[in-house]
Amino acid sequence: MICVNELTEHKCNKREVLEPLAIILSPYAPYIAEELWQLLGHSNSVSFATFPEWNETYLIENEFDYPVSVNGKTRFKIQLPLSIDKEEIERHVMASEEMQKWTNGNVPKKVIVVPGRIVNVVI
Predict the structure, then answer these.
(1) Do 112 and 71 have their domain in common?
(2) pLDDT at 60
(3) Alpha-carbon Rg of the chain, whole angstroms?
(4) Alpha carbon distance 79, 61 (integer Å)
(5) In terms of residue numbers, what domain contains 24?
(6) If I label 29, which of 4, 10, 84, 123 is the partner at 20 to 30 A Cα–Cα?
(7) Cβ atoms of 98 and 111 closer than 8 Å
(8) pLDDT tens-digit series, residues 31-42
C-alpha cells in the first residue's frame, strides 16, 4: 500500500514500474494482480511471468532524516547525507533555521551526535 500511495502521489503510470509491481503483488492478491496484468495488455496469466530479479543497489540509502532533540524533546528533522562525519553533522544542525529558533542565540552546553541515528542538543 505504501508503494501504491507513493506511485499515486507521483502520478506514475509507466509500464516499467507497474508490470513488476503486478508480478510481485500476485502471490498476495492474485485476483487484482491478474486483472491489472490483463489491463496492461498481456494475454497470458501473471502466474507465468518471470519474477523480478533482486537488485541490491536499489536498497542503498544515501541520506538520513536525523531527528534533532533539544533538551530531550524531538523538535525537528534534518535530512543529511550518510557519508558525512560527526563534526559536519553538528555544523549543519547548528546552522539550520530551526535550531536558531530553539537556541535564541545561546551557545549549547553539549551536542551529542550519533551518526545515522540522532542528534541531541543540550542548552
Answers:
(1) yes
(2) 87
(3) 22
(4) 12
(5) 2-57
(6) 10
(7) no
(8) 999 999 999 999
Q: Is 72 left (phi over 0), alpha (psi -120 to 50) or beta?
A: left
DSSP structure string for 46-96: GGGSPPPPP-GGGG---EEEEEEEETTEEEEEEEEETTS-HHHHHHHHHHS
Cell numbers placing 78: 534534518
CA dist., res. 65 & res. 77, Å (int):
6
Q: What is the dihedral of CA 84, 88, 94, 95, to 10 degrees?
A: -90
Average pLDDT over residues 18-23: 93
pTM for this model (two decimals): 0.62
Cα→Cα distances 46→14, 36, 53, Å: 18, 9, 16
